[in-house]
Specification:
The protein is α+β, with helices and mostly antiparallel strands. The chain has helices at about 10-30, 40-45, 65, 70-75; strands spanning about 1-5, 35, 50-55, 55-60. About 5% of the residues are buried.
Length: about 80
């Protein structure tokens, strides 16, 4: 379980972290539970996403599926 592992990292550090998490996941055949607000990291590493807004589940699915849901866009991806 990783809680905000990219907090305070610049984009290069986040890319390195993404590579490391992918390696750990594949090498040890683990499921990673990731809590993160860096959407590029989430979308790049997760195969399934659960999106919460103020403690309420508003979407679940693949990164491509959830990034197109209006409620997710408003809550996390910068919608109005």
């Amino acid at each position: 379980m990783l809680d905000e592992p990219a907090a305070g990292m610049n984009s290069n550090e986040t890319k390195e972290l993404t590579t490391l998490i992918d390696w750990i996941k594949d090498e040890f055949k683990l499921t990673i539970i990731l809590i993160e607000h860096d959407m590029s990291l989430v979308m790049g590493i997760c195969s399934k996403v659960f999106v919460f807004d103020y403690g309420t589940l508003i979407a679940s699915g693949t990164p491509n599926e959830v990034q197109n849901i209006e409620q997710v866009i408003k809550a996390y991806l910068g919608g109005e």
